Amino acid sequence: MQQEGYHLEQRVQEVQQEIQALEAAVEDVKEANELLRHSHRSPKMKGLADEQLQLKTELEQALQMLHERQRLEQSLLNDVTGLESSLQNLQSENSTVMECLKLLEEQVDIACKEAEEQNLKYKRAKAQLCRLAKEIKNSHGDELEKINKEMELAEFGETASDALYKLKTLASEFPDYGKIIEDGIVQAGITVPYAASSVRSGRSSVASMSSRPSSRSLMPRRALSSSGSARSSRSGSVLNLEFNSEGS
């Protein structure tokens, strides 16, 4: 765009030079016309009249060319003005874009630093959690395994109770097959529950199993109860720590 403006300025200068030359030619024609006007008494009157007519024609052509050159000059000046305005707008937009780009780069740098810090914190926390879970597992491994087995057994019991309750429901909904279902359950020596089991009942049964006195314990009932609750709380935290460390 700057190069195009430079070419336009050169073109304007050339047009101005041509206009000056045409103006000089007009002045020459005017002088010749004056001389012709004062030469009526010359013996070459006829030749001067022809020359006057020719000069008048040339003058009209020169004036017409002058007007065209002036229009061209004005058009070129308008183009130069428009290009200069466009150049200023582009420079302003470029400055704004550069400022925005600088701000974005600063924000990206800040975000990268924060991400690195969070990553380091995450790695440290993960290492501490794994180390703590390993220590707890080493010191309470048997107790943790016992709690896990009791949980699995309770969940299996819940599933079996739900299945038996559904069989009882089917027997009541389809009387034709109810007798067959009930006879099969009675022959297996299974007691049908009155309602479907829940997760809460299963968890409470696990808690009761965990707090049940063992044959090797000779402690008083109050001491045994407090010891069992403390052991249950500690085992629950062990489970949470182990699951979290494995998930991470």
Automatic annotation (TrEMBL):
Region (Disordered): 201-248
Gene Ontology CC entries for this record: axoneme
Entries under InterPro entries matching the protein: CCDC39 (IPR033290)
Pfam family, one: CCDC39
Keyword vocabulary terms for this entry: Coiled coil
GO BP terms, alphabetized: cilium movement; cilium-dependent cell motility; inner dynein arm assembly
Origin: domain of life: Eukaryota
Biased composition, class Low complexity, residue ranges: 201-237
Coiled-coil ranges from the UniProt annotation: 5-132
Protein name: Uncharacterized protein
Classification lineage: Eukaryota, Viridiplantae, Streptophyta, Embryophyta, Tracheophyta
